[in-house]
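Risk mitigation, structural track. In case the binding assays with BIS(adenosine)-5'-pentaphosphate fail to produce interpretable data, a predicted complex structure has been prepared as a fallback.
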Amino acid sequence: MNLVFLGPPGAGKGTIAQKVMEKYSLPHISTGELFRKAISNGTPLGKEVESILAAGKLVTDDVTIEIVRQRLMESDTCDGFILDGFPRTIFQGEALLKLRPIDHVINFVLEEEEVVKRLSGRRIAKSSGRTYHLIYNPPQLEGIDDETGEPLVQRDDDKEEAILQRLKVYEQQTAPLIEFFRERSLLRDVDAKYSPDRVFKDVVRAIGLE
Ligand code: AP5
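Fallback model:
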């Protein structure tokens, strides 16, 4: 099954994608995570995109489509995948539908006030991308990753100025994809304000895997 997770920053796309990946063995492809890995590995791609991510702006369509195209050529995607954070512009949406057919686009619906709370309290383990929240999903030991023991950090783009910029970019460039996919009968709205377990169940029901 080929899935796209769409929604504002911090709506819980990565959290739920992780759960779907574990239960249904579908690879979780997060373009944000691919960029963050490239940055921490110091690759030419990482150097090119580092300041763009920190500012909360979008990487160019050409660069993003190319990394997704290459990732979708890998054999683990033959039986399906979860695309998280791609597409983010109408141009990327059109490119994706030429690359692979899509079965469902889950639209994570969440109010801006809650988005800001989730992003400002998020902490991550850099090596794995594992995500926590200071209040909603704290680690067992404060500030420490449950599995590796490494210190948790705040993403550069989870600071207030970048959050506001990301929300603006979402409204202007990504939200139009809601109608784009609705017109193609691919959109499944899911209310993301509930607990991760409840949202996971609603997603599973929306894609007919229940
Ligand atoms: P990306 O990494 O994709 O960021 P994003 O879309 O802004 O999404 P987030 O990772 O911030 O949030 P999420 O929805 O996954 O929420 P999460 O599960 O972590 O992109 C980063 C950057 O890369 C972009 O700004 C851009 O520069 C670049 N980029 C990426 N893709 C691109 C593209 N296609 N084109 C161009 N540029 C691109 O949850 C958030 C927090 O809430 C966590 O703390 C979590 O624990 C908590 N939480 C989750 N679910 C719940 C719940 N149900 N209840 C309570 N708390 C919850």
